[in-house]
Each structure stands twice: as structure tokens, then as C-alpha cells.
Amino acid sequence: MDGVQRAARTINDLVSRAVHELTSVWLLLELGLILVAAAIGTLAATLVRRRIDLTALTAGWPPLLRQFASHVLANLGTIIFVLVVAIIHAGMEAVTWPSRSYLLGVAASLATAWVIIALVAGLIQNRFVYRVVAVSAWTIAALSILGLLQPAMNALDAVGIFIGGLRVTPLLVVKTGVLLLLTLWAANTASDFLDRRVRSAADLTPSIQVLIGKLIRLLLITFAILIVLSTVGIDFSALAFFSGAVGVGLGFGLQKIVSNLVSGIILLADKSIKPGDVITVGDSFGWVESMGARYTAVVTRDGREFLIPNEDFVTQRVVNWSYSNNEVRIDVEFGVAYASDPHKVIELALAAVKSVSRVLETPPPVCHFKAFGDSSLDFILRFWIRDPIEGLTNVRGKVLLALWDILKREGIEIPFPQRDLNPRGPFKVVIEQEGDSKQRKARNRNAK
Q1: Using an 8 Å Cβ cutoff, are 66 and 97 in contact?
Q2: Residue 14 and residue 7: Cα distance in Å, rounded?
Q3: C-alpha to C-alpha distance for 41 and 47, rounded to whole angstroms
Q4: Quick one: average pLDDT of 317-321?
Q5: Which of 28, 61, 69, 417 is most deeply buried (CB count within 10 A of its CB)?
Q6: Which residues lie below 8 Å from residue 42, measured CB to CB, with a gap of 6+?
Q7: What is the DSSP string of 14-26?
Q8: Does an H or E element contain 185, and which?
């Protein structure tokens, strides 16, 4: 409670000083000068922004320098305000007592701190993280400038509760949250940079690249959390209670999540599935777009994206059309009339399949006489393609169209099923002539 009392006394002193200053004409003068400096900064920044085309000016600059220049232009009004207030403050200190320009010095210091923090934190791409870092850093700087940082820290540290031997105070929570946010952002930024470098390595397979990237991210995040816990002085033995609770949660409520995580690591390690593979899982046929810690994204030919849990790839049967190579054999069955010459049909079928651009010349396509069907001579045409990611049904359709065209041109009939009726008993057959049929239709019309 001593920290709270000291903070209260400090705040009372500041309030008393402020009340005293409010009765002084110098305070009104300082406020007026601050408003004038703010107006000058806003007007000057507006004029500069209208005359400068930042995009054309920084066209050949590096991306980081262009981003910094945009933040400088965005905070130009505050920068000009700081310069004007600093000049006025220096002039007043030269002609009068320093206490009569105290508010100007505070305003200049606060504005300077905001500009520096905004320019440095502006390099953070995530807008939420940028706002949190900027506001937190400026709050700490403002408390330090006003002389309230240490009293505020003492007040936040004066109240606390004990959890498993660990004393948790508002100061500990704030410090841990801010440091954790900064370290996690740094860990994610570093892991993204290293992941891009790993993916640019041509001698690594896509699955190994993804595995290395996931391991780097996991290690960096774990290392960042351990650094934060050590920095704020948290004893790891005090977290035994929480680790036990997490273990129970993993055992009962997070079985599927852990199973998918382990399955994802297995898939990346054994390289059975990798980004770019053409696969079939159940009724889903498509290519692997990306592999995550919990699921794998499979994009189908119609543009839909299926998020399949990694566990399904381990426990179910998966058809990988491009596991060892991209060559895929496709079978097309067809039949012709019994009056056709099977030797000529085979020759025409091979000529038809070779006219399709996606069909490979090596291995060469083959056509086999399969069977004597009920109403046709049955054949099977086999050919190979090297781009299953472009689809299987479309190339099979092109081959069937080529078969239809060449068989029709050569006069070879593609039969349809025909059935012979063999009646087992006598039945009545009525034969009508054309005149009788017309009379019966006329009677039916009259009856209606």
C-alpha cells in the first residue's frame, strides 16, 4: 500500500501545481502558443502534402525506406509542431524564468516522443500490433516525462495475489503482456523471413521446406515465450499447476487437435503428400495447395477448396496421382458392331488417341481387344498423360470425341444394346392397316 500512497501524493502535488498555474497568466500564454504551433504545423503539413507526390518521389527507393518516408509525411504536422514549440521554448527560457515555460517543454517532449515512437513502430506491418506498441510506448514515455512512471509502477506492484506460489500483480501482467506481444511479433517476423529463405532453396522438396518452416516458427515462438517468462522473473516451477491442467486438457478435450498436429508432422516428414501433388481422398479430387499444422488445403477442378484434417491422410486410403512421378495412365472402354474389323478398329483407335495433344508418345498408347460382348466387340484404349493437375475427365472426353469422329468417318457403327423376345406361350398379334388406324383415332376423338 505504500506504493499506492506515494502515487496518490504525487498526483495530489501535480494537481495542486496545476491549480496554482491555472491562476497564472503565463499558463494561458503557454496554451495559446501551443495552439498557434499546432495550427502552424497542421497548415504547413497540408501545404507540403499537396505539393509532394510521394509515390513518384520514392519510386526507386527500397520498400523499407519508402514505408519510412510515408510515415514521416504522415507525421509531418507533429514534427513541425515540435520544431516550433522547441524554438518558442528556447526563446522564453532566454527572456524569463524556466518555470514560466514548463508547459511548453512538456508539450515538446510529449510530441517528440510520439514522433519517434510512430516512426519506429510504423515499420510493423500488423496494424493491431502497431497501435498497441505505439500507445503502450507513448504511455510509458509520457509517464516518464511527467515524473509519474516510478510511482505508477509502485502502485501497480503494490496489489497482488498468489497463484501456486507465484505473486501476480497488475504490473507483472502489463509487463508480461507487452513483452510477449513484442517478442511474438519479432519471432513471427523472423520466422517469415527464414521461411522465405527456406522456400527459395531449390535442393529441398516442398514437404521438407514446409516442415522446416513449421519447426522454425515453433522453436522461435517457444524461445520468445521462455525469454519473456525469464525476463519478468517468473519461476518455471510455479507453472507446474498450469502445465498439469494443460496436460489434462490435451488428454481429454484436445485429442483431435493433437492428432492432426502429429499427423501433419508425419506427412511432412515421410513426404507421402506434398504441395502440388494431385490426390484423391474420398470423393475429393484435386491438388494440394498448402499444408498447415491442423489441415491440408486441397483445391478441386471447380475451384472449391477443401480443408481436410491431416488425420484423414494417415487413417484413410489416399490416391496420390503424382507421388513418384506425374505420369498417369487412363483407360477408355468402347465397343463396335460385330460386323467391324477388329484390326482396323485398333488402328483407328490409336490414330484417334494420338491426335489429342495431352496424350504422351512415350509410353505409347495401346488398344486391346477385350471381349465379345452381348451386342458389341469390346475394346480398351490405354494412354498416358503427364499433367493430371489439368484434369482427367476433360482429356478422357477429348479422346472419346476423337474416337467418335474417326469411327463415324470410316463407317464403323457403335452399337446399342438389343434384346430378342422369346415368348413361352401363345399370344395375340393385331395388325392394323393405315385406314383402320385413322378410323380408330376418329372414334377416340368423338368419344372425348
Answers
A1: no
A2: 11
A3: 10
A4: 83
A5: 69
A6: 77
A7: HHHHHHHHHTSHH
A8: helix 170-199
C-alpha to C-alpha distances, 190 to 130, 186, 196, 221, nearest whole angstrom: 17, 6, 10, 10
User: With bands split at pLDDT 50, 70 and 90, how would you rate the model's confidence at 167?
Assistant: confident
Has residue 367 got a pLDDT over 90? yes
Whether 12 has a pLDDT exceeding 60, the answer reads yes
pLDDT the model gives residue 246: 61
**Tens-place pLDDT, residues 104-155:** 788 888 888 888 888 777 777 767 777 777 777 778 877 777 777 777 777 7
Residue 368 has pLDDT above 90, yes or no: yes
CA angle, 166 then 169 then 175, to 5°: 100
The CATH class that applies to domain 328-409 reads: alpha beta
- Size of the chain, expressed as the number of residues it contains: 448
Helix (H, G, I), strand (E, B) or coil at 372: strand
Give the CA count within 13 Å in the CB-facing half-sphere of 247.
6
Locate the domains of the chain by residue range: 2-159, 176-253, 259-320, 328-409
Residue with cell 474389323: 341
In degrees and rounded to multiples of 5, residue 162 shows phi and psi of: -100, 125
Cell 477443401: give the residue: 306
pLDDT at residue 176 tops 70? yes
Q: What is the DSSP letter of 362?
A: S
d(CA 313, CA 294): 12
Mean pLDDT, residues 72-90 taken together: 83
Mean pLDDT along residues 272-291: 82
DSSP element (H, E) containing 371: strand 366-372
Q: Could you tell me where the DSSP H helices lie in 200-254?
A: 206-231, 240-252
pLDDT of 229? 77
User: Residue with C-alpha cell 511548453?
Assistant: 104
Instruction: Report the pLDDT averaged over residues 29-41.
Output: 83
- Nearest one of 354, 357, 419 to 381, comparing CA atoms: 354
- Say which amino acid occupies 438: K
What are all long-range contacts of 295-299, with beta carbons under 8 Å and residues at least 24 apart? 295/260, 296/264, 296/267
Q: Whole-angstrom Cα distance, residue 257 to residue 310?
A: 10
pTM value surpassing 0.70: no
Alpha-carbon distance of 320 to 329, in angstroms, equals 13
Query: Cβ(372)–Cβ(342) under 8 Å?
Result: no
Quick one: fold of 259-320? SH3 type barrels. (2.30.30)
Helix (H, G, I), strand (E, B) or coil at 398: helix
Task: Say if residues 357 and 423 touch (Cβ distance below 8 Å).
Answer: no
